[in-house]
Write a structure and sequence with these properties.
- The protein is mostly helical.
- The chain contains two helices and no strands.
- The longest helix has 34 residues.
- The chain is rod-shaped and about 125 Å long.
- The N and C termini lie far apart (82 Å).
Length: 103
């Protein structure tokens, strides 16, 4: 379980780094002193798509980690059920009656 959680943590950290990278890339593309032409528009669209994908991956990873961690919470022990009355012990079988006449 610990190995799986650590792997999920690494995936979540990778998604966060990807978000930071694409956000910074888009910020450089739309800098106020920079002219946006036809060529830059395709880069803006691609960067926006990649940023959206990174955010979606991060959200899925965060939900998965949260679900796993919540499943590890301690649960109260169920209340013991009242004891059921035991059935009476059956009577021993009667000895077999002989059909032979006694003398």
């Amino acid at each position: 379980m610990l190995s799986a959680l650590l792997g999920m943590h690494d995936d979540l950290a990778l998604a966060e780094r990807s978000i930071d990278f694409h956000r910074d890339y888009l910020a450089r593309l739309i800098h106020t002193e920079r002219q946006i032409g036809r060529h830059e528009v395709s880069h803006l669209l691609d960067g926006s798509r990649r940023l959206a994908e990174a955010v979606a991956v991060r959200d899925v990873q965060a939900k998965s980690v949260t679900a796993v961690l919540q499943s590890l919470a301690r649960v109260r022990a169920p209340a013991p059920s009242p004891p059921t009355p035991s059935l009476p012990v059956p009577a021993p079988p009667l000895p077999a009656q002989s059909t032979a006449h006694s003398r």
